[in-house]
Design a protein that fits this description.
binds flavin-adenine dinucleotide, Rossmann fold, globular, mainly alpha, Serine Threonine Protein Phosphatase 5, Tetratricopeptide repeat, 5-stranded parallel beta sheet, 19 helices
């Protein structure tokens, strides 16, 4: 009798270069894909609104791809520790495969499930490396500690064997004779309604592996040669825009790495950005409280003033009167994305000109970014705030007007996203840049004393 293989999809919504799926295909039994919407396991961070939108569409596409191959995607909701063993029993599965996750609550869940499945001795449970180029426990300093500075971290990674070549998509995936019951994706209500604010996301993005691969090809054919020169210009569009693809695992970093290397272009700068992604995830692995606790403990002494909600709201809505900041916040709200340079400027403005705790900004980005993930978002916020690993020094405060002059000199980006910000109808800035900078530096003295 057939004993199907379950493939538990998580942040790896793809068929190509998916080691868990490959293991299932190689096992030669029917393959059942499953995705669990887990809002019940302790400590797992609930997805933000933009992420839920992306997940809905990406799951719909994954389901179609699996059924084109002959298999099926089963959707279930609940604590994974209940759902996965129950599905194993229901389908009489002989094996469960998944690709690893690196947050602490997720690792606890996964380890518990692996143990419970293996205990009776009848079910094979195996996990694979599919989402990071280097496993976090393999990159250590000579003294055996995790790296806290990017350059030596990346140099150490580059000394390790080159990331493996991507695995091809399985040619076919035989499905089970009886399809297990599946939730209706729509019933999960991942899409916003009342109001539906997702129009701009739909205009900008087509979630799913097919569009992801097309984007990778287009980037390598058209933009990568110009990447090092123009990656900081928000209106130029020469960056890859692959971050949501990597976030949801529609593309694996191995595929992106090898496609870039074999493109023949100079790709060192681009690869080192993939290195920052690795660094953020390795940091999360070693510091699981990344979204809530300052990596630099001296920063706990920072005297954040009482939150002024009107200031936070003005920032969230792009109504600060600082054109580049307002343009960035409008791009974010409209499309679920913001260019990296502008992310740095808007984040710096929140923390260092409005003196609002970086965690409030991180929460807003978490809710509004389609690429929000539990490592890169808090890691980068801590980097900008100056509280993080290898962070920008606190006193290096971005001046949003100078940044605009340098990186958006003809105002193309600002005109696109905040057209009113440059003309007669421009708002008054909600803070004086020079005064607020001085206040931030004075507050930082407390950190210096504590450090
Ligand atoms: C305050 C703040 C919050 C951020 N939050 C996130 C987040 O939640 N998710 C996220 O993926 N990125 C985040 N970033 C990093 C970065 O802004 C985005 O990864 C990048 O803008 C995505 O655009 P791209 O794909 O065109 O990048 P490219 O320049 O084409 O880079 C290629 C890939 O490298 C990775 N990468 C690039 N820059 C960084 C970086 N600074 N840190 C980590 N990885 C990087 C991304 O996976 C990206 O897709 C944040 C940055 C800041 C300043």
């Amino acid at each position: 009798m057939a004993s199907p293989s379950l493939v538990w999809f998580r942040d790896d919504l793809r068929l190509a270069d998916n080691p868990a799926l490959r293991a299932a295909a190689d096992r030669g039994e029917p393959v059942i894909g499953v995705y669990v919407l887990d809002e019940a396991s302790p400590g797992i961070r609930p997805l933000g609104g933009a992420a839920r939108w992306w997940l809905h569409h990406s799951l719909a596409e994954l389901g179609e791809r699996l059924s084109d191959k002959g298999s099926v995607l089963v959707l279930r909701r609940g604590a994974a520790a209940d759902v996965i063993p129950a599905l194993v029993a229901e389908t009489e599965a002989g094996a469960v495969f998944w690709n690893r996750r690196y947050g602490a609550p997720e690792r606890t869940v996964d380890a518990g499930i692996k143990e419970s499945l293996r205990a009776p001795g009848s079910v094979e449970a195996a996990s694979f490396a599919g989402s990071l180029l280097f496993e976090p426990w393999t990159v250590r300093t000579g003294a055996g500690d995790p790296y806290s500075v990017f350059t030596p971290f990346w140099n150490a990674c580059r000394q390790l064997p080159t990331p493996r070549h991507p695995l091809p998509e399985p040619r076919e995936l035989p499905g089970p004779r009886n399809h297990p019951a599946s939730d209706d994706l729509v019933s999960w209500q991942l899409l916003p309604r009342h109001p539906d604010w997702s129009g701009g996301l739909g205009e900008r993005w087509t979630p799913g592996e097919g569009a992801a691969r097309a984007r990778l090809r287009a980037f390598l054919a058209e933009d990568v040669a110009d990447y090092d020169r123009s990656r900081d210009e928000p209106a130029g569009g020469a960056t890859s825009q692959l971050s949501p693809r990597l976030r949801w695992g529609e593309l694996s970093p191995f595929e992106v790495w090898h496609a870039a290397v074999s493109s023949g272009a100079r790709v060192g700068g681009f690869l080192s950005e993939l290195g920052w992604r690795e660094f953020a995830w390795h940091t999360l692995f070693h510091s699981p409280d990344l979204a809530t606790k300052n990596l630099r403990h001296a920063f706990d002494a920072f005297p954040w003033p009482a939150l002024r909600p009107s200031m936070l709201r003005a920032w969230q809505r792009g109504e600060t009167g600082i054109p580049l900041v307002d343009a960035g916040m409008h791009e974010l709200w409209t499309t679920g994305f913001m260019h990296n340079r502008v992310r740095m400027v808007t984040a710096s403005f929140l923390v260092k000109n409005l003196l609002i705790d970086w965690r409030r900004g991180e929460e807003w980005f978490w809710d509004t970014l389609v690429d929000a993930d539990e490592a890169n978002n808090p890691f980068n916020w801590q980097w900008v705030a100056g509280s993080g690993a290898d962070a920008a020094p606190y006193f290096r405060i971005f001046n949003p007007e100078l940044q605009a002059k340098k990186f958006d000199p003809d105002g193309r980006y600002v005109r696109e996203w905040a057209p009113d910000a440059l003309g007669d109808r421009a708002r008054e800035p909600i803070v004086d840049l020079a005064e607020s900078r001085k206040a931030a530096l004075a507050a930082y003295e407390a950190v210096k004393r504590a450090g």
